[in-house]
Write a structure and sequence with these properties.
The complex is a heterodimer. By secondary structure, chain A is of the alpha/beta class. Chain A has one domain: Alpha-Beta Complex (Amidase signature (AS) enzymes), CATH 3.90.1300. Chain A contains 16 helices and 11 strands. Chain A has an 11-stranded mixed β-sheet with strand order 1-3-2-4-6-5-10-11-9-7-8, sandwiched between helices. Chain A is globular and about 55 Å long. The mean pLDDT of chain A is about 95. By secondary structure, chain B is an all-alpha fold. Chain B has a domain at about 1-35. Helices cover about 40% and strands about 0% of the residues of chain B. Chain B has 2 helices and no strands. Chain B has helices at about 5-10, 20-35. Classes of the chains: A alpha/beta, B mainly alpha. The interface between A and B is medium-sized, with 34 and 27 residues.
Chain lengths: ~475, ~60
């Protein structure tokens, strides 16, 4: 069982295509692993073993008949439970939607299916992608395998935990204020929030229409590239979807960083807020690693992080409130306390303040893009601290605010979080790479070079 | 804040049915936003538009030939 646990997507897909790995045996092995671990870590809120084995058997028959549907053929994956799968409940991890049955696949679900993926089930999330970690919901909250009883970040918590535990090699999350990159940081995995509009949001329960992104979460950069390649593309029925050509994200993946210009947004984590000393040291070390690999690294300055955070908060909570207003009024007790309060905050925001936040967004985006003119990619922090214990409510709230991900929901630029080392206690540290709009390939190129130079990805939680 | 005023503001926001701790939560929301709104710029020029602009898709373009 353990031999399959930490296979990557690319590896597994190649073994399956070469008939050296049976999709059925692979799926059975992961289901056994989930059975062994999920009572502790709660990555899943709905495991679908019958469907998974049915998909796996179909994938195996196709391979034996010489037919490979796509780059994910026979590879298991999980979906954050805000993403629709036809005939399966989408609950948002909430009592409010406990009986909500999806009637159609989200386009991202369809793409993964058409690429040959094997759906294992629906994954834990903070309630409605905003309220967590919560203890007052119909299903338990996911727990970080790093540290044993630690906060895994959110809101795509189940996705991060399942990947870190070796339950599956691929998952989808969503990111409105950092919710792919937060669990990526806390669980030592790789998560990409691509450019706004790159991946369809249709069939995904919204948190804030103008800030939501859906994206790939994996254990390494190459797998993330493969998954985004499947997901990216125009959806004419998603009003936020961009009709921009999708490049080959892997074409320059292994080109290295020699001669690239990397802007270090150090003020985000050394002045605007000050990161945990080990996290700060890891970021400075990452900058040095990229320098040694041949990149030119220099400090750049954007507007203060607090401005981006405030702008994101007002827009996010206003838009979330509009979506939830009726339910909040009629069944407030069916929300967990955190989601209820955070969404209700939006009810106090006037229309004029919301519009001013949108105008502020324009200003902050222009300011960021002006700085990016002279660089290829930016390097900065994602989380400012390693994960705390999940039963430390104050600690979790403290971590919630101490992050520098929101600026890139505001600007819509592609932003990737990945492992950058570990504390002396063995807890994950992370970094964030940010690119020009539509330049995910460049972000991946830098990420790949860093990953190959450091190999933090070879380390797995000790107790799983 | 007086309960009546709080209820009126909640009703204006579409939350007319809130009671007890949920209504208190709305008061918390009002206090929170009062602080958060201080971060909004005070110097926005009238020409600085919202970043969400209504635009029709190009496929509906037509006109006289």
């Amino acid at each position: 069982m353990t031999e399959f646990a930490f296979l990557g997507i690319a590896e597994a897909a190649e073994l399956i295509r070469g008939r050296k790995l049976s999709p059925v045996e692979y799926t059975k092995a992961l289901l056994a692993r989930i059975d062994k671990l999920d009572n502790r870590f709660h990555a899943f809120i709905r495991l679908m073993p019958e469907r998974a084995l049915e998909d796996a058997r179909k994938a195996e028959q196709e391979v034996m008949a010489g037919k490979v549907r796509g780059p994910l053929h026979g590879v298991p994956y999980g979906l954050k439970d805000i993403i629709d799968v036809a005939g399966v409940p989408t609950t948002g991890h909430s009592k409010v939607l406990i009986e909500n049955m999806a009637t159609a696949d989200a386009p991202v679900t369809t793409r993964l299916k058409e690429a040959g993926g094997v759906l294992l089930g629906k994954l834990a999330t903070h309630e409605f992608a905003i309220g967590g970690p919560s203890f007052d919901l119909p299903w338990p909250r996911a727990v970080n395998p790093w540290g044993g009883n630690h906060f895994p970040g959110g809101s795509s918590s189940g996705s991060g935990v399942g990947l870190a535990c070796g339950m599956f090699p691929a998952a989808l999350g969503s990111d409105t204020g950092g919710s792919i990159r937060n669990p990526a940081s806390m669980c030592s995995i790789t998560g990409m929030k691509a450019t706004y509009g790159r991946v369809s949001r249709r069939g995904v329960f919204p948190l804030a229409f103008s800030l939501d992104h859906v994206g790939p979460m994996t254990r390494n950069v190459r797998d993330n590239v493969l998954l985004l390649q499947i997901l990216a593309g125009h959806d004419p029925e998603d009003p936020g979807s961009a009709d921009v050509p999708v490049p080959d994200y892997s074409a320059d993946l292994d080109r290295g960083v020699k001669g690239l210009r990397i802007g270090l947004i150090r003020h985000f984590y050394a002045e605007d807020m000050v990161a945990h000393p080990e996290q700060l040291a890891a970021l400075d070390a990452a900058a040095e690693t990229l320098r040694k690999l041949g990149a030119e690294v220099r400090e750049i300055r954007l507007p203060p992080e607090a401005q981006y955070a405030a702008c994101n908060r007002i827009i996010l909570r206003s838009e979330a409130f509009a979506i939830h207003r009726k339910w909040l009024n009629e069944q407030p007790g069916n929300y967990g306390e955190l989601a209820r309060q955070r969404i209700m905050d939006g009810g106090a925001i006037s229309a004029a303040d919301y519009i001013d936040a949108l105008r502020m967004r324009g200003r902050l985006t222009r300011a960021a893009l002006a700085v990016f003119k002279d660089i290829d990619v930016a390097l900065t922090s994602s989380s400012l601290d390693p994960p705390c214990r999940i039963d430390d409510a104050e600690g979790c709230l403290h971590l919630y605010a101490r992050q520098t991900r929101q600026p890139f929901n505001i600007t819509g630029q592609p932003a990737l979080a990945m492992p950058a080392g570990f504390t002396k206690e063995g807890l994950p540290l992370s970094l964030q790479l940010v690119g020009h709009p539509w330049q995910e390939a460049m972000v991946y190129r830098v990420a790949q070079a860093y990953e190959q130079a450091t190999r933090w990805v070879d380390r797995h939680p000790p107790d799983v | 804040m007086q309960q009546d005023e709080l209820r009126r503001i909640a009703a204006d926001a579409g939350l007319a049915k809130l009671e007890g701790k949920h209504l208190e939560g709305f008061e918390t929301a009002l206090n929170t936003h009062r602080e958060q709104a201080k971060a909004l710029p005070k110097d926005l020029h009238w020409s600085e538009e919202s970043s969400l602009v209504f635009q029709l898709p190009s496929s509906v373009a037509g006109g006289n030939k």
